[in-house]
Specification:
The structure is a single chain. By secondary structure, this protein is α/β, with parallel strands linked by helices. It has helices at about 20-30, 55-60, 100-110, 165, 180-190, 230-240, 245-250; strands at about 5-15, 35-45, 60-65, 85-90, 115-125, 135-140, 150, 150-160, 195. The protein has seven helices and nine strands, in the order βαβαββαββββααβαα. Strands 1, 2, 3, 4, 5, 6, 7, 8 and 9 form a nine-stranded mixed β-sheet that branches. α1 (about 20-30) links the parallel β1 and β2 (about 35-45).
Length: about 250
């Protein structure tokens, strides 16, 4: 089998109902660690995308379109199975990384052999009997003075491409949410992989995973749906029953 291209990154950008693609491409093309290729994944067709051919060629941008089927939250995680780079970074459509974000991710992932995210959550003890808001958050537009191990990450997932296979060993509890929990839990269970939010100091916004966190607070945000917390609570319990150990459970061992 051909080995992965060492230290190279495939960036996957998700397009659904938000029209931030051009803005996001500008952020990605300004990275100090340039991606080897950029895959723009459009889920359904809510508006037209027009990337000039010369730009696509210059920056190795490819367009993948699920025209008639909504593959929801998990569909984009199939694509790394086809990538030949050692690393993959999947971005939500509202996430605008600082110019050293991919560099920051690469260094953090190498240091801890971990999944890296632009934000993260740590579950509080007793979360099994409560809703998913019983978490401690890191990122989300706030500084992270020192890198932090967390239970799961979101907004951006930076990881070794080969780890994407862990997500597909089990069927999701729901296709309607929880891809962040699913990926973290399955990677821990099958690969002993941890999750980290890297250092994002207040005096260096170039290292931040998201420079415009306000974009994720619009009416399209999944957390605004009425069943969001209940569903995520069920997903958390599902994965704990399958052997996932959040940090608060590990402390009891």
């Amino acid at each position: 089998m051909k080995p992965y291209n060492a230290d190279e990154i495939t960036v996957i950008l998700t397009v659904w109902k938000r029209s931030h693609l051009q803005k996001q491409l500008n952020y990605i093309l300004n990275q100090t660690k340039a991606p080897a290729q950029i895959w723009v994944y459009q889920n359904e067709t809510h508006f037209n995308i027009n990337i000039p051919e010369d730009v696509k060629t210059k920056y190795n941008i490819s367009f993948i379109h699920s025209k008639d089927i909504n593959f929801k939250f998990h569909g984009r995680f199939v694509l790394p199975l086809l990538a030949d780079t050692e690393y993959t970074a999947i971005f939500d459509d509202d996430t605008m990384p600082g110019p050293r974000w991919l560099e920051n991710c690469l260094e953090t992932s190498k240091r801890h052999n971990c999944i890296v995210g632009a934000n993260g959550r740590i579950l509080r003890e007793g979360f099994e009997d409560l809703e998913s808001r019983t978490t401690l958050g890191f990122g989300d537009g706030a500084e992270v003075p020192e890198e932090k191990e967390v239970d799961f990450v979101g907004h951006c997932w930076f990881f070794k491409t080969e780890w994407s296979r862990y997500l597909w060993r089990d069927r999701p509890f729901s296709w309607d949410n929880g891809e962040d929990i699913h990926f973290a839990a399955a990677s821990q269970i099958y690969g002993d992989i941890k999750c980290y939010v890297p250092s994002m100091p207040s005096n260096d916004l170039s290292l931040w995973g998201d420079s415009e966190s306000h974009l994720g607070r619009d009416d399209l945000a999944s957390w605004r749906r009425g069943n969001h917390e209940k569903l995520r609570s069920e997903i958390l319990r599902y994965w704990c029953d399958r052997g996932w150990k959040p940090l608060c459970h590990q402390q009891k061992d």
